[in-house]
Design goal:
This protein is of the alpha/beta class and 260 residues long. The chain is built from eleven helices and ten strands. The longest helix is centred in the N-terminal third of the chain and has 20 residues, at 76-95. The protein binds 4-(N,N-dimethylamino)cinnamoyl-COA (DAK).
Length: 260
C-alpha cells in the first residue's frame, strides 16, 4: 500500500504512522484523513502489530490542524462531510482494539489536537504547543474537540481553551492532564517506543479489554460500567494468556504471552 501523505513503518510489534506533509505543518486534508484511516486499518488487521504510535513529520509540528486552504472555500454541505470524515477516522482510532499512542512533536492545533485526543494517551516534546484555535477562524472544532477536550481536562478548562482559542505549552498541557509525559524533543520517539514495547510484552487480550472497559465504562453509569468490567474480567479466563500469566507468576518467571 502506497501512501502519499504519511509514512508507515513497523518494528517489534509497533506500527509508527507519521503524518507527512511538513511543508503544511502536517495539516489534515481529505486525502491525509483517508490515508490515516487506511494506515490504521492496515495496522489493525496485522497480527504482528500490537500497538500503534501516531506522530508528525519534521521537528516543528505534530499536526497544525485541518487544512485551512481546503476549508476556506467549501460550502456547508462539504463542511459537514469534512467534519464527518474526520470524526469517523478519529472514532476508528478511539475504538480500535489496539492501543494507540500520540507522540506529539510540536504544534497540535485544531484537528491536530483532536487527532491526539482520539488516541489512548499522549506524550509530547518540550517544544509542543496545544490549542483549539477554531473560533479565531469563525468555526467550531469539527473533529470531536468539543466532546473529547472536556472529557479529558474538565468542562471549565476545555471551555476556556475553546472560547479563547489560546495556545498552551507542553508543561501546561501536562498540568491539566492533556498529556501524560513531556520528553526532550530528540528523545520523544524513543520514549514512546519504549512505552509501546512495554505494552507489547503484556497479555494483549487483557490490554485490549482494558481499553474497551475504560472507553465503554466512561459512557455509561457506574453499575453498568462495573458489569462491563466483570464480563471482560470473566472472559479473560477463557484465554491462554490468563493461564500462562498466572502459571508464570507461580513459577517465578516472565510470562510468554501469545495473545490467545
Ligand atoms: N492548514 C493549511 N496550511 C497550514 C496550516 C493549516 N492548518 N497550518 C500551517 N499551514 C501552512 C502555512 O500556511 C505555511 O504554508 P506556506 O505559507 O509556507 O505555503 C506553512 O504551513 C508553515 O506555516 P507558517 O509559516 O504559518 O509557520 P509559523 O511557524 O509561522 O506558524 C503556526 C506556525 C502553527 C502557529 C501557524 O502556521 C498557524 O497558526 N497555523 C494554523 C493553525 C490553526 O489555526 N489550526 C487549526 C486549523 S482549523 C469542522 C471541521 C474541521 C474543523 C473545524 C470545523 N466542521 C465540519 C464544523 C477543523 C478545524 C481546524 O483544525
Amino acid at each position: 500500500m502506497e501512501f502519499q501523505n504519511l509514512l508507515y513503518e513497523k518494528e517489534d510489534g509497533v506500527a509508527l504512522i507519521t503524518v507527512n506533509r511538513p511543508k503544511a505543518l502536517n495539516a489534515l486534508n481529505i486525502d491525509t484523513l483517508l490515508e490515516i484511516k487506511m494506515a490504521v486499518e492496515k495496522a489493525a488487521a496485522d497480527d504482528e502489530v500490537m500497538v500503534l504510535v501516531v506522530t508528525g513529520a519534521g521537528e516543528k509540528s505534530f499536526v497544525a490542524g485541518a487544512d485551512i486552504t481546503y476549508m476556506m472555500n467549501i460550502n456547508a454541505l462539504q463542511g459537514r462531510e469534512f467534519g464527518m470524515l474526520g470524526q469517523e477516522v478519529f472514532r476508528i482510532i478511539e475504538t480500535l482494539p489496539k492501543p494507540v499512542i500520540a507522540a506529539i512533536n510540536g504544534f497540535a492545533l485544531g484537528g491536530g489536537l483532536e487527532l491526539a485526543m482520539a488516541c489512548d494517551f499522549r506524550v509530547c516534546s518540550e517544544n509542543s504547543k496545544f490549542g483549539q484555535p477554531e473560533v479565531g477562524l469563525g468555526v467550531t472544532p469539527g473533529f470531536g474537540g468539543t466532546q473529547r477536550l472536556p472529557r479529558l481536562v474538565g468542562s471549565g478548562m476545555a471551555k476556556e481553551l475553546l472560547f479563547t482559542g489560546d495556545t498552551i505549552d507542553a508543561f501546561e498541557a501536562l498540568r491539566i492532564g492533556l498529556v501524560n509525559h513531556v520528553a526532550a524533543a530528540d528523545q520523544l520517539l524513543a520514549y514512546v517506543q519504549n512505552m509501546a514495547r512495554k505494552i507489547c510484552f503484556r497479555g494483549q487480550i487483557a490490554v485490549r479489554f482494558c481499553k474497551v472497559a475504560v472507553n465503554e465504562g466512561l459512557q455509561t453509569d457506574i453499575d453498568r460500567a462495573m458489569s462491563i468490567e466483570a464480563d471482560l474480567f470473566g472472559l479473560c479466563f477463557a484465554s491462554e494468556d490468563q493461564k500462562e500469566g498466572m502459571k508464570a507468576f507461580v513459577e517465578k518467571r516472565k510470562a510468554n504471552f501469545q495473545g490467545a
